[in-house]
Specification:
The complex is a heterodimer of chains A (773) and B (163). Chain A is 39% helix and 25% strand. With 773 residues, chain A is α+β, with helices and mostly antiparallel strands. Chain B is an alpha+beta fold and 163 residues long.
Chain lengths: 773, 163
């Protein structure tokens, strides 16, 4: 159970004695726990277990400060303890003001802990006001009313946070049961626990409801604190081991004696890597747990009624990534409350439940964790966005008139965009969604927005599971290998020297490529890296255009060659090299070569590729077409045009005609170990039959559960097709579509006959509908 | 760097004024790096060049799971850059580890601080900034290199100031 290891050491300075450091970590955890319990308590003011938990946190702090000599902290904790004592004895009821007071106490305690951490002393500020306020709350004069008796009915099992029983404190949750055996056998690990155990024990001695006591001991014995730097170092060494393993595997591939050994090494390395990665993982509940407080405070100050639902709290993510998404997440939640969920009056007028719902959902999808923040608020109004964007000069009125609703909503990601009518202290300072997007993209993630006016907004953040190992495409330029993170890569285009002169176009000295009708700015990597070098012209070499999306910029990076994609282990660069700004790190490739990792965002910036609304429209352009109708790949086979539904196209392969083999007279292609029937009604194969070196193009398509290939001479374009109606009827015609205002036949994939079982000769080799051009 | 030198001086007094130096020959001069600052000597390395890096950077090498920035001593001394395999001294400075690219590493010499003299005034400014004085050997001079002064961070700052 990886979450059991508490990663510490980052927040706490190193030059203080062990005891104080332990105390700070313990107390911070206690306060985090207290914060969670307080927000829960507001929902269930009668829950004595919650009050007991909060009491224990404060008491532990008070107890330990006594012998560490932090008088100011002790005094404040003491006043809080008094109030909590009354609550525990049920002389007071935990109403709204009391909880607000306790939250203020919590903030006060945190502030002092922070001061101790940074200055080694507790500061000299006076807490008299806060203490007076807490004492005031202890006066029994208050009418005893079950205030806020909004005991929410536990509706869905998904509503885990505000309504489920309080999660036991994280330190204690992961009991011995799930822990790996070696840790248990470790000669007791009370490094971290002496001070706290003493405090804990004293707290519980006088505290009768000591329910989690046995767990305390269990957790103390089976978990230990590990410094993050040690984990980083371990990760580093494992990365190194992976590289060494790759080399060993290559070197021993031909030696049968070593095969077993190297295979074992391979397995152990893979397991080790996984374990170390797991040790760095923490559940998202670590950051989700801050949200209830934010929601509570904001809904009070903004006069909203909000129900928070949290799902998938135990989804795990690398610690550093978790840190990185903390701010974007908070920002998104604020936005939802400020701009999304309406006030109860407006909601009632709109026929909605006066209480809005904010959902936080985390789940793992393959190598990504998806975090969804959705509300059932007002949604993003395209009209508001349009007028705001025009007012801010982010887009011209003319241009805005042509954007679809979806495109308009995407405008909120532009820097300097903020629609809050008034600048509130919640959000609306113009550093909004662009910061969310930038932060998430910085760690290799993606942000998606889905908003329906009147219905609500969903913001989806896709975060990679780990930063240390990323998939990358290895490219060659200036006789060196470079790694290009796959996250930014959207497609690759090969421009052979013979075509370079025609397809790469220039406006003055700015190279451009026409990618499906849109101009794509090009950046030649060799010219960028060695500005005064002697470079081959594009017409003298093969050019590979990697189409990249970075920070909302789209451009093509031209490299000299492509190698295989690899999972690379990211190594940091020294400050001198980081300052160059083009590289985000370096890595060691499988063949032991070093490769610099290119940073697409910085390259775009350095090459002057700008982010503007025009480009945003390019990005979303495809979606607009998709809305109108199906998209088709327009191909040419022996002089005639035909269309293939784009959704079915898997790959476009250029290959020598000699790779086409025949079963009987049916052409087939051995494609990645699979045999594909190749459809050749256009007669492409027949036309080049006598020349085994001739190049043909095979469009590999998906059809049901099988793949089929279609032989063509050229791939022309991608276009949206329009439906055609037969004159005099409303019946849609099948098999043809309107592409670029020409009636074009659609290749009938279903009609491609299956391959015969075995190599029997089949005779029913039929035709695709003929192109009606 | 002043602290490092001060540290060295202190150590010299305590340790009977004897210092062990790893000798490095480059062109006609003999240089020495105190072995207490050397983590490892890597032979026959081929650093990977870094386009657009400051000129004093000799490239990157792979060293124990990390990627190490190297400094080209030849460039710093204004000598023609050598192609092919070179030896690397892995040095530790206050801001981390880095590699020093040299032609070849020689034997370890034990020198006495009594034979140490500061940089001569006729040395040009560039070299004065890099050298930390010289030790008089029986038949030649051993120029002392101070890892702190060769640190890529420091060189980067110096280069920026010069530009």
């Amino acid at each position: 159970m990886p979450g059991a290891i508490i990663l510490a050491g980052q927040e706490v300075g190193s030059n203080m004695d062990e005891l104080t450091r332990e105390f700070l970590i313990e107390s911070q955890e206690g306060l985090d726990r207290m914060e969670r319990c307080l927000t829960d308590l507001e929902v269930r003011p009668q829950d004595t277990a919650l009050i007991a938990e909060i009491f224990r946190s404060v008491h532990t702090i008070k107890g330990t400060t006594g012998f560490l000599g932090f008088k100011r902290l002790e005094k404040l904790a003491h006043s809080g303890e008094n109030l909590l004592g009354l609550l525990r004895e049920e002389k007071l009821i935990a109403d709204g003001p009391t909880i607000t007071g306790l939250l203020q106490l919590l903030d006060g305690l945190r502030l002092i802990l922070k001061t101790i951490e940074s200055d080694q002393n507790e500061g000299t500020d006076d807490d008299a006001v806060l203490i007076a306020r807490i004492e005031e709350l202890q006066l029994p004069a208050k009418p005893k009313q079950p205030a806020h008796a909004k005991v929410a009915e536990p509706q869905t099992p998904a509503a885990t946070l505000a309504f489920a029983p309080p999660p036991p404190p994280p330190v204690l949750v992961q009991a011995a049961s799930e822990l790996a055996a070696p840790v248990e056998e470790a000669p007791a690990a009370p490094i971290a626990t002496q001070a706290s155990a003493a405090a804990m024990a004293s707290a519980e001695a006088e505290f009768d409801g000591s329910k989690p006591r046995p767990q305390v001991t269990a957790a103390a014995e089976s978990t230990l604190r590990v410094d993050v730097t040690l984990l980083n170092r371990m990760m580093n060494l494992v990365g190194e081991l992976v590289l060494t393993r790759n080399q060993v595997l290559q070197a021993t591939a031909n030696d049968p004696n070593l095969t077993m050994l190297s295979r074992r090494l391979d397995m152990v390395t893979a397991d080790l890597r996984e374990s170390v990665m797991k040790a760095r993982m923490q559940p998202v509940s670590n950051i989700f747990s801050k949200i209830p407080r934010i929601v509570r405070d904001l809904s009070q100050s903004l006069n909203r009624r909000v129900r928070l639902q949290v799902e998938g709290q135990d989804t795990e993510l690398d610690k550093s990534l978790l840190e990185a998404i903390k701010d974007p997440l908070t920002h998104a939640v604020r936005n939802s409350l400020d701009h999304g969920i309406e006030t109860p009056e407006i909601r009632i007028a709109a026929g909605k439940d006066p209480e809005g719902t904010l959902k936080l959902r985390a789940s793992q999808e393959g190598s990504h964790v998806v975090i969804e923040i959705s509300d059932d608020g007002a949604g993003i109004s395209p009209d508001k966005v349009r007028s705001k964007a025009i007012e801010k000069g982010l887009i011209t009125a003319d241009r805005a008139a042509h954007l679809s609703e979806r495109e308009l909503q995407q405008l909120i990601f532009l820097p300097g965009f903020s629609t809050a009518a008034a600048v509130t202290n919640v959000s609306g300072r113009g550093v909004g969604m662009d910061v969310v997007r930038t932060n998430v993209e910085k760690i290799g993630g993606k942000v998606e927005l889905d908003s329906r006016p009147g219905k609500g907004t969903t913001l989806r953040m896709r975060i990679p599971l780990t930063l240390a190992i990323i998939p990358a495409l290895i490219v060659r330029s200036v006789n060196q290998s470079f790694a290009l993170p796959q996250g930014a890569l959207s497609e690759l285009v090969h421009v052979p020297p013979s075509q370079a002169a025609t397809v790469i176009e220039w406006i003055e000295d700015a190279p451009l490529y026409r990618l499906r009708g849109k101009l794509l700015p090009l950046v030649f990597l060799d010219r960028l890296l060695v500005p005064d070098g002697d470079h081959k012209a594009a017409t003298e070499k093969d050019n590979f255009i990697a189409v990249l999306d970075a920070d909302g910029r789209r451009f093509g990076l031209v490299v000299d060659g492509l190698a295989d994609p690899e999972e690379i282990v990211v190594k940091p660069l020294s400050a001198v090299l980081k300052d160059i700004g083009l590289y985000s790190g370096a890595t060691v490739l499988g063949n032991a070569d070093l490769a610099l990792i290119l940073d697409p965002g910085s390259i775009a910036q350095k090459a002057g590729v700008n982010l503007n609304a025009e480009q945003l429209a390019v990005e979303t352009g495809v979606e607009v077409d998709a809305a109108k109708g199906l998209e088709y790949l327009l191909v040419e086979a022996a002089g005639r045009q035909a269309a293939v539904p784009l959704g079915d196209v898997l790959r476009i392969e250029q290959l020598k005609v000699s790779r086409i083999e025949y079963i009987g007279y049916r052409p087939v292609l051995n494609f990645e170990g699979q045999l594909l029937p190749v459809e050749d009604s256009g007669g492409v194969l027949a036309a080049v039959q006598d020349n085994p070196d001739a190049q043909i193009i095979v469009v590999v398509c998906r059809e049901g559960n099988r793949h089929v290939g279609i032989a063509v001479t050229h791939v022309l374009d991608v276009a949206a097709g329009g439906d055609l109606f037969e004159a005099g009827t409303t019946a849609r015609t099948g098999g043809v579509t309107l592409l670029k205002n020409r009636v074009t036949g659609v290749v009938d994939l279903v009609g491609v006959p299956p391959l015969p079982p075995g190599a029997a000769v089949h005779n029913d080799w039929n035709q695709i509908p003929e192109t009606v051009a | 760097m002043s602290t490092a030198i001060a540290g060295l001086h202190r150590k010299e007094k305590v340790a009977a004024a004897l210092v062990e130096m790893c000798s490095v020959r480059l062109g006609s001069s003999l240089f020495g790096v105190p072995i207490s600052h050397i983590l490892e000597i890597v032979g026959g390395a081929r650093p990977q060049p870094v386009p657009l890096a400051p000129k004093f950077v000799g490239g990157l090498v792979h060293y124990r799971g990390d990627v190490l920035t190297t400094v080209s001593l030849r460039y710093l001394l204004g000598m023609p850059i050598k192609e092919g395999a070179q030896d690397i001294l892995v040095l530790e400075s206050s801001s981390g580890c880095f590699g020093l690219l040299v032609d070849s590493v020689g034997e370890v010499l034990t020198v006495s601080s009594a034979d140490h003299e500061p940089n001569p005034s006729i040395l040009d400014e560039r070299r004065r900034a890099l050298f930390a004085g010289a030790y008089k050997l029986k038949d030649s001079l051993l120029v002392m290199l101070d890892p702190e002064r060769l640190d890529p961070m420091r060189l980067g700052v110096a280069e920026m100031a010069a530009a």
